[in-house]
Input
Amino acid sequence: MRPAICRLAAPVLIAVFVVALGAAPNVGADEGMWLLDQIPKLDQAKLKAEGLELTPEQIWNTADGTGLASAVVWLGGCTASFVSPDGLIVTNHHCAFPAAQYNSTPENNLIDKGFLASDRDHELPSPGSHAYVLEGFEDVTQKVLAAVPEGADDTARFKAVEGVIKRIVKQCEAGGNLRCRVAAMWGGLSYVLYRQLDIRDVRLVHIPAEGIGNFGGDIDNWMWPRHDGDYAFLRAYVGPDGKPADYSKNNVPFRPKRYLRISDRGIARDSLTLLLGYPGRTMRYRTSFAVQEAEEIRYPENIRLLGEAIHTLEQQSKASPAAAIKNASAIKYMNNGMKNNQGMVDGLRSSHLLESKRRDEAELMKWIQADPVRAARFGRVLPEIGAIYKAELANARRDLVLRFMYRTSRLLSVANTLLKLSEQRAKPDLEREPGYMERNLPRQRHRLMRLQRSLDVPSDHAVLRLMLLEASKLPADQRIEALDDLLFKAGGDPAKEVDTFLDTLYAGTRLQDEDFRMSLFDAPRADVVGSGDSMIKLALALEPLREANRTREQRVEGALSRLRPLYVQALHEYRGGILYPDANSTMRFNYGTVSGYQPRDAVRYFWMTSLHGVLEKDTGVPPFNSPQALLEAARTTEPSPYLDNSIKDVPVDFLATLDSTGGNSGSPVMNGAGELIGLLFDGNYESMASDWRFDPVLTRSIMVDIRYVFWNLDRVYHADRLIREMGDPFRTLQH
Amino acid sequence: MRPAICRLAAPVLIAVFVVALGAAPNVGADEGMWLLDQIPKLDQAKLKAEGLELTPEQIWNTADGTGLASAVVWLGGCTASFVSPDGLIVTNHHCAFPAAQYNSTPENNLIDKGFLASDRDHELPSPGSHAYVLEGFEDVTQKVLAAVPEGADDTARFKAVEGVIKRIVKQCEAGGNLRCRVAAMWGGLSYVLYRQLDIRDVRLVHIPAEGIGNFGGDIDNWMWPRHDGDYAFLRAYVGPDGKPADYSKNNVPFRPKRYLRISDRGIARDSLTLLLGYPGRTMRYRTSFAVQEAEEIRYPENIRLLGEAIHTLEQQSKASPAAAIKNASAIKYMNNGMKNNQGMVDGLRSSHLLESKRRDEAELMKWIQADPVRAARFGRVLPEIGAIYKAELANARRDLVLRFMYRTSRLLSVANTLLKLSEQRAKPDLEREPGYMERNLPRQRHRLMRLQRSLDVPSDHAVLRLMLLEASKLPADQRIEALDDLLFKAGGDPAKEVDTFLDTLYAGTRLQDEDFRMSLFDAPRADVVGSGDSMIKLALALEPLREANRTREQRVEGALSRLRPLYVQALHEYRGGILYPDANSTMRFNYGTVSGYQPRDAVRYFWMTSLHGVLEKDTGVPPFNSPQALLEAARTTEPSPYLDNSIKDVPVDFLATLDSTGGNSGSPVMNGAGELIGLLFDGNYESMASDWRFDPVLTRSIMVDIRYVFWNLDRVYHADRLIREMGDPFRTLQH
Output
């Protein structure tokens, strides 16, 4: 599945910039994650010939809510869309997974058996879930760049940009109910302010059994052919006044400006598809230095550490059903990350991207140096970027282990958050780190409360043990000194030292206790430090290194925000054409065609899977365990409005040449008329390195066919209420 | 790959029977391994419409050598064919593997690097290799059945049939130079005598490097898409008088009555293909009782024991290059067997054959019992067969472990052979067990001499250890008493007992010494027993159980030779149509069309692979290590007469709907004009259970395209001598 994008800790900087139009676009047919206001600049005649029945405004206009983009919802990690006038939202199963997990107990496991609210009163709250609806955007490049003082060094530059963005956001959000973001495009060539309505009462309406919504699980993940009914329904609620509100029984369904109609026309090979969504992160304009670091160090090390952490959590999950529920989400997330990283490595290697980037950069440098004016503007850019990456290698292993400690141990992460909170809150809002500004405190509070649902202390202990053992093995020039002082200085057997230390650590912490934890949420730093909690003490000991790293990263970010725009500018002048910026969790549009592919010699993948393929894969054992109700429905031969004529069966998933990445999960995929035909939920394995380089021959996005969603609603769940609410597109209800 | 069929130890009983013709054949389009004299009874009009340009006689006539069948060679486990007037034979790489292994040393490893004889004088002898050429066949059913006395019990029946067959064979071979076989068809409904010219000087002419001829190795084995250049060339030699002779420098190439022309026409989808070969064993007429035993006990236990034995041998091979060469063939053979058995289990399960056989048998029983005459003839058949299978289960685990001891330890097997030899040779020839009759002694002698090339004593020790530990774990009612007496009676730690026992055993045997071993070959039993060799002592201790099993098996075989023909007769009267007998290593004909398949939902396999697919798979690491010469040739863009027009590349392997099994390896596959277009070397994984049931949708045979063979001869090996000898079909030589 497309990984969800975590945006909380480091709110993404955001903008729109359109490179002055050259001749024909020099990107591949379906490559491109276009900014909304780039849509009018695409070749409309070509799009019309391919089947587009809409004007650009009918796609992108969010000002009056007439564009499709107004029906698109950002869930903070996933994309979704409105499909009824009453705020009904459709997205992926895995995007509704946290809501189902929150509402599950060992006795009543909604993940396993699925859930369908019998009526609106039984739709389940999911505290901490938000739905963001785009209200508008504007270019703020001048404002941002004007804030950088003449002659600022890289750290000053970083701080100036961060500071002005915080001010712009604060001003934007002053009226309440809005969530605003400033996003840097092309690494800082331009900056765009996005205004989103922030709906904070989002409820779970329907999630199919895991044997439908996650059919194939980690085995099929990223693979084609796929047979995953990866859908779920949520609903946005607002106060009786129509404005966003915290959860309350009295809230009413949100009435969106725009919702998507369900297509009843089916899907044909080679037909046009449209995609609107929030792709998270691509690295298409990165240099060979970044490719090398990723391919040779970061991904392989991630794969290794994730593999070990997953193994450890699985052992814990085997031991207790309660731990199994609590670890499920983390295991799923980490497995996905590991497979993704493996696919990246495989893809980078097989596409020889490093070599081709080096070749391209050598040619670019030649072109730059051929002209003294260009040499003066761009001559230092590539060497400087290279020097930055080289310097970062010095502590790469140490910093990776450090990051993994916080990434895997929830209690250490909480301790760190509480310490940071107490320190940051003492400052004026605009001087705080972005994650600790007032606007983000409710989310931090929810995160800390919600932790209870996913925290298993023995599992936490086990993964932290793993990472401390990793730390014990770091080379002499990359030690984490605080840990050496606490554990390894004596020179004893590291495993014994770690076990002794952890026994004391977990005996001396109360952070797993919700009341205790939340009592520190608003406490001043003296109280947090003075609590004597052993986990907080550990976080405190590690704080100087974390802060030093942060300072270094600010300098690097400042430098890159200076260099990357120059690099893209050089590239553009060299190549011409129209360029889209790398994905950065802002809304993008792209289009593609329905199409299979040939993964290797003599193997051809058809573009659509079918219900009989579900039966073919079903073993009764997870992850290939279709619920009984599905098996029975699949075996009835009742005439069906869901059948696809070309395969004479109910279609399940399909492929298109759409350019997508993590964050696009749940995105609506539409036909040329803007009607919903499917939900994007994955990319194919062969395309994983497309985050770095789009390969039009092999890159495909994987969608669940809306007809399969409705077949499930109708034949498996008898969800007449929802079918009616979406206008009964397949005319299956009695009237 | 199709496994080679071992026929030495238990010479197959053989015959021809054609069920009186009913209406249309009730078998699937390409199902059927037809006896040669059934060919005229096939639908000639249909075959002609599909592209057959030959009369039945042009295919099967062996009397005057004008039929294609006279060009087909049985290598004793593999099939091959003559492709020149000078006895040049083409077969699979893996069929020439033993000849290459015999001629290899650690310093000069022909398996690894391949071999091409520079001229005839340098073609390499391969003692023990035979080439059998079919000279004729005749029905001997009356003669065989007349030998069974009225009222004989099952054991007497077995002995009478075995006795008369031995006499028929002896008479047939009396003139010398012939190898004769009597084969039972349909389990004994009819018996056929086959006369084959026995050529015993067969030399290695050319075998490509393993990185071509076994490209993909065990990973790709049984898989499609395939990129295996699975070919090799041998040559048959005879004495200056044109008659078979032992190897001698003075021998001359054999001049076959018929050899195959190489096709230069290419291959088209859906075109007709003809197959002639020696399929080893199918079980298409077996009952549900046999399916159950195979699916639930035999295959799973085989898979487990083979897996452990392979692992053990691989560990030994890692330790020394000499062991690696000696174990290579056994590992390959066992890996193939294990994957085959796994495919069988998968196929039996997924096709639900057990349930469908049970349903069919219940219907058959209903039909039998609906008529008193039928009930009297056939009513007891199925229950009796069921009772036999049930009784056999009582000692199934014990007998499997016992068999595996002899199967894996070559020294124990040799000890047993020497004991048996000395005992059997004391009897008149016609009273001996078939494997020890005079006609088979030269082969036994060769086997024992040749052993030196594949015997690694530490490996032998290691696998026997494995099997003794298995024996220690047998349940109380299935113990091998001789081993309990020798090893486990004291009740100590079995592993320790086994190690102590084996240390003594291997210290006390000299059978690894060729001179010692061969000195016992002709020795009387008293000398063999009296040699005091510890391995012979172990074989002696196990002999009573082996003999008791043999007696039991004779009774079972006798009973089945009475029941199976009745069962097939009942089936035929019930169903009508024309039936082919199960495969039994006699020559068969079948036809099919060139065709890809759909292994699962949304996946389509194209029918042909290409040279660029070889490059795609090549990693430089075995088993994906193409030799440098191939890589260089593949990258040149020289115009090529080998290109296939539809893929604009050199074709490598292709698929057809041919019905084949182990023993068909190396079989010639011909176009409608009888020209050679490819060599069969494997079946697809999805078809492995086709030994039990032919599924026309999924069953495919895999061939190496003759154009790929010639591309290798021409561009990689520059084997102009061989190309010229085969008539330069692609006109690549300078004249």
Observations:
- The radius of gyration of chain B is 26 Å.
- The mean pLDDT of chain B is 93.
